[in-house]
Design goal:
- By secondary structure, this protein is α+β, with helices and mostly antiparallel strands.
- The chain is built from six helices and four strands.
- A four-stranded antiparallel sheet has the order 2-3-1-4, covered by helices on one side.
- Strand 2 and strand 3 form a beta hairpin.
- The chain is elongated, with a radius of gyration of 20 Å.
- The two termini are about 30 Å apart.
- About 10% of the residues are buried.
């Protein structure tokens, strides 16, 4: 992957609907080579999909909750099953196994009062030994963009100017 690929990815992360001609012009390629690069990154799994980003508040799910969950899973297979069962809950948007074997969840719910229903569903699908929820009061940054090599260097150079 070279600097042109990285610039293409940067553009697509900001706007997955960017037209091929716009992307090609921005990276100083003609459309066909640009399309081939995008196609290759898709086939290699670098680009895994393109989505529409929605405003949770406008859809009745404006409360963000981070949940740390300790389970009594006795095997890796049971932990996998529990992780998959939790991931299947609609309000859960992310599930991560973190250090210590705990699970860190991210959930979008309508109101704080909806947390009780989510809590009951969580304890029904997992052998929970401890659960801690933290509600986001304000969001200062939220992105789906993955930091790309040399992006931070570019920001530092711009900030210094």
């Amino acid at each position: 992957m070279d600097s042109i690929d990285l610039r293409i990815l940067s553009i697509l992360q900001r706007d997955a609907n960017a037209r091929l001609a716009q992307i090609a012009a921005a990276v100083k390629l003609s459309p066909n080579p640009c399309w081939r690069r995008i196609n290759k990154m898709e086939s290699e799994g670098v680009i895994t999909g393109r989505v529409a980003l929605l405003d949770p508040a406008k859809l009745g799910a404006g409360t963000l909750v981070f949940i740390k969950l300790k389970t009594a899973c006795s095997s890796e297979e049971e932990a996998e099953r529990v992780g998959e069962a939790i991931a299947a809950l609609p309000a859960i948007t992310e599930v991560h196994r973190v250090t210590g074997g705990d699970l860190m969840l991210k959930a979008q719910i309508g109101r704080v009062s909806d947390y009780d229903r989510l809590y009951r569903r969580l304890i029904a699908v997992a052998p929970v030994t401890e659960i801690n929820a933290t509600f986001a009061m304000a969001t200062f940054k939220q992105t789906t963009a993955i930091p790309l090599p040399n992006e931070d260097e570019g920001e530092d150079k711009r900030d210094a100017a």
